[in-house]
Please model this.
Amino acid sequence: MSDFKSELGFQDCWDSEANRKLNKPAAGSVDSGGRKRKAGAQDADRSTAQAQAISAADKARLARIVKGAPEVMVKVSKPAKNDKSGNPIKVSRASEAVRASEHLAYISRNGKIEVENDRGEAFNGRTQVGAIYREWIEKHDEDRREGSATDRTRITTSIVFSMPGTANAEAVKDAVRALARQEFQGRHDYAMALHTDTHHPHVHLTLRTVGEDGEKLNLRKADLQRLRDTFAEKLRTRGIEAESTPRHARGVTRRGEVTPVYKIRQRGGKPLADARKMRQVRRDLEDNGGGLPQKAWDDALIARRNRVMATYDQAATILAGSADPKDRDLARETKRFAARLTETTTQRAEMARSLAGQDAARSAPRERGKPTDSPERQQDLSKGSPDRGGRQR
Model:
């Protein structure tokens, strides 16, 4: 009998190709290492496949996930579409020059924070940081003359790398420095700055969009995951526990909020996006007799969650049969972790519940003899909660 043991695949949980490289780094496309897997009978049979082993890399990653290792955050900062007066910003060479200058001033806190470039040079003060801007503008104009850039080409692309506040800030910066050298040095000019004046230490990595070969940086979803994986790996080599799993592998149903909405909530405001979503949910309820219609993405979410739970369950079964007591401990932790992945409530469903609760409260009969607030009393109460701008809610 052969001693060969097949390995359990975690394709539905995370990408196991941890060392994959950017196929065309300047263009931002990722080499997946082969053709994309087609959905079909193999997907249906995966949960019943009698895998007998788990690779060391997948086992280590599973251990970090079930123990709740801190997740890294990598985000591409999108340029503002409107100016401070609310007017649309037309992308041009002039508007991009202003944006690039303001961005370098921002990441350097107007010269108060050191900025480091791809050659390892340190820049301190507004005058020195301005030298980076002038060099990049000259190169951008040269790219325009050569046809590698147009008036609508973004001069810079900004990426933010962040970790929870307990992480060592200098180690975070060193991890981003190592990542930038590996992924972008020799292909894109870049500058980086560490910020420690918020709840999370984070590094702004700003790259010149047009690369040395004339190709434009165009980071896609797969590229961001690749950068997350690399960032987490660089942190771990520096003694910082970190992970970079997709949301579905951790049982997180909802994607994170975009930066403007997040900042509005931090200030205690109510984003307009919430009101728009609530109106859409109310229309859906009214059009479907009080029930929320099932969308295709709802079914896909549940199907993916089932596949993830089946993979973890199979991994726990394999680990439970191991002779290593550490594997058996991991099996029990995996079982407990998978049991918590049953929640699949979306934001739409939460809003529908909220509206149903509000409607029920309005339709409930009032208690006899219970006084109602007078209009004057209601007005006094409303004055007690002005918003930040001094206007009443």
About this structure: The mean pLDDT is 80. The chain is about 45% helix and 10% strand. The radius of gyration is 26 Å.
